[in-house]
From TrEMBL:
PANTHER family: QUEUOSINE PRECURSOR TRANSPORTER, QUEUOSINE PRECURSOR TRANSPORTER-RELATED. GO terms for molecular function: transmembrane transporter activity. HAMAP family: Q_prec_transport (MF_02088). Keywords: Cell inner membrane, Cell membrane, Membrane, Transmembrane, Transmembrane helix, Transport. It is a multi-pass membrane protein. This is Probable queuosine precursor transporter. InterPro entries: YhhQ. Involved in the import of queuosine (Q) precursors, required for Q precursor salvage. The chain crosses the membrane at residues 29-47, 59-79, 85-107, 119-144, 180-198. One of its GO terms (cellular component) is plasma membrane. Belongs to the vitamin uptake transporter (VUT/ECF) (TC 2.A.88) family. Q precursor transporter subfamily. It is found in: Cell inner membrane.
Length: 206
């Protein structure tokens, strides 16, 4: 457990920070949380590379529990339009996190014997896409209104040009697209700390 502590603390810090920063807008389509949350995939990949898939799953489980606690706290804090965390957002966040992180671990494992960059990059690209699709669909799609009928998310269904310039689509699709683009970009950026940290710690842990 001691060896897992850095990963657990890093994952917990990212989850808590992202839950706080998601309350603050960055431009028209993003929140500041979009720039911190993707590093959860880096923590998972580092743990997987240095300590194996089982250790990575434990770190993910701790992150999931921290996320649930954050959602419970957020559901009790009233904002201008109701609780800061609605039931749909809580379900979408938890389900997307768990499914995406476990997918990341599985894909990484399949590719771990290849080039050093392939496993972290491909696993993050796949899992980040899954994360975005699951969260925004569950939290805001009109097709899933039955999950929380009392929660009016009609604002998310407003038909607007995609990212202000593309074909007309529901607002939540623009939000999801912007979020995904950030995740994909940071997947490439994260290769730098991944390479540096693995290079420094691999021999020490071994």
């Amino acid at each position: 457990m001691t060896k897992l502590l850095p990963g657990i603390l890093a994952m917990a810090a990212i989850v808590v920070a992202s839950n706080i920063l998601v309350q603050f807008l960055f431009g028209s389509w993003l929140t500041w949380g979009a720039f911190t949350y993707p590093f959860a995939f880096l923590v998972t990949d580092l743990t997987n590379r240095l300590q194996g898939a089982a250790a990575a799953r434990r770190v993910v489980l701790f992150g999931f529990v921290v996320g649930i606690i954050c959602s419970l706290i957020g559901s009790q804090i009233m904002g201008e339009f109701g609780p800061l965390v609605s039931f749909r957002v809580a379900i979408g966040s938890g389900a997307a996190f768990l499914a995406a992180q476990l997918t990341d671990i599985a894909v990484f494992n399949r590719l771990r014997e290849g080039s050093w960059w392939k496993a972290p990059l491909v696993s993050t690209l796949v899992s980040a896409t899954l994360d975005t699709a699951m969260f925004f669909s569950i939290a805001f799609s009109a097709a899933l209104t039955m999950l929380e009928p009392a929660n009016d998310v009609s604002w998310a269904g407003e038909m607007l040009p995609l990212l202000g310039a593309g074909p007309v689509a529901p607002l939540w699709v623009s939000l999801a697209t912007a979020d995904l683009l950030v995740k994909l970009a940071l997947a490439f950026v994260a290769l730098v700390p991944f390479r540096l940290i693995v290079g420094k710690l691999a021999a020490r842990i071994a």
